[in-house]
Amino acid sequence: MTAVAGGGARRPRVVLAMLLLVYSFNFLDRQILSILAMPVKADLGLSDSQLGLLGGLAFATLYCTMAIPIAMLADRTSRSWVITISLAVWSGFTALCGTAQGFAQMFLFRVGVGVGEAGGVAPSYALIADTFPPGKRARALAIYGLGIPIGSAVGVLLGGAIAAAIEWRTAFMVMGVAGLLTAPVFRLLVRDPPRAAPAERGTMRPVFGMLARKPAFWLLSLGGAAGSTAGYGIAFWLPSLMMRSFGLDLAETGRFVGALLLTGGVAGILLGGMIADRWGRRTRRAYALVPAIAYVAGVPLMAAAMLSGSWQAALALFVVPQALVYAWPGPLLTAVQQLVPSAMRSTASACFLLINNLIGLGLGSWLVGALSKALTPQLGDEALRYAMLGTLVFYLIAGVLMAAAARVLPQDWVEE
């Protein structure tokens, strides 16, 4: 059963606001390394490929694999408690990143951040789906998805400012401590709404068995993974691109990326959810078609932004494609939630995140770094620009897969 009339659902705005705050910390701690990449690289003596590993594989390795057992635990126990503990764990490891003395230590601390964040997202999706009725879920999930641009923007703005004024280690420590202080506040304000009895709740075998038989799940997951490969790769390396190819310093880069995320990113996520809910009243296909159209439309504009000759032109050209490639969270996550009954939603979300993030998060930043390293002998500092351009093909692949998912989504949809 859903919980739109009981328990924690009596104050859905408070629940959604707190989940948004926690998700903002999720992306703040995940993406802060992108703005600090240059000073970290210089201080620890790292290569671009090592930076790419820290931005992707170090985080994704256990983030993806631990998400499923933690989500199963959340389905069987308390989703709000699992989120609280996860926030405390990843924030603690973020603070520890400020003490790293070399690649190996930083890699291990980033793995710890990933382990903590593994328990934050899937239970949050399920709490939102249990709190809001079907006709409002894409919008609610889109608001939750604002944690991506807001957290990333705060990370680059404050991280860059703190690093420029003091040092990069202090930036990690400040952000980590802020998350630790937020964890008890979240637990105080958020409780699980009533839901299915423990005996009915999802376990891995029946949930994955149900999903595996649905073509929509595979197409949505692989399409999301392709989009995330480009998205995470570009997001991680964009600050470095602005410093290397456009001549901005650390603080200027933080303001550039922050402004881009808070305009294009926020607008894209909100519009994606609103359009999907409105269009979705006529056809369930809309929840896959919205990201499909947005991904493909964003590619030529993003390419033009990367190839522009000044940071002013780049900012103007980046805003619209940034909005387009951020349109996916509301519609896509709603579609995944509706492939299973309510008691299985945390575990189903974790299955989606396993595929999406193991490929997208694990591959994206590393691939750009490896391509940049390979092209550097011929192109010098411009190698990063062309490495990032190459990853845009993954947005096109994502659009094709989402369009295919739209054809089968109505038959796989669970009305609950």
Question: What are its keywords?
Answer:
globular, 416 residues, mainly alpha, 0% strand, disordered N terminus
Description:
The protein has helices at about 10-45, 50-55, 55-75, 80-95, 105-115, 120-130, 135-145, 145-165, 170-190, 205-210, 215-245, 250-280, 285-305, 310-325, 330-335, 345-380, 385-390, 395-410. The chain has about 425 residues and is mainly α. The model is unreliable at about 1-10 and about 195-200 (pLDDT under 50).
Give the secondary structure arrangement, pairings included:
Elements: H1 12-44, H2 48-55, H3 57-76, H4 79-97, H5 103-117, H6 121-131, H7 134-145, H8 147-165, H9 168-189, H10 204-212, H11 215-244, H12 250-280, H13 286-307, H14 311-325, H15 329-337, H16 345-379, H17 383-390, H18 393-412
Helix pairs in contact: 1-2, 1-4, 1-5, 1-6, 1-7, 1-8, 1-9, 1-11, 2-5, 2-16, 3-4, 3-5, 3-16, 4-5, 4-6, 4-9, 6-16, 7-12, 7-15, 8-9, 8-12, 11-12, 11-16, 11-18, 12-13, 12-14, 13-14, 13-15, 13-18, 16-17
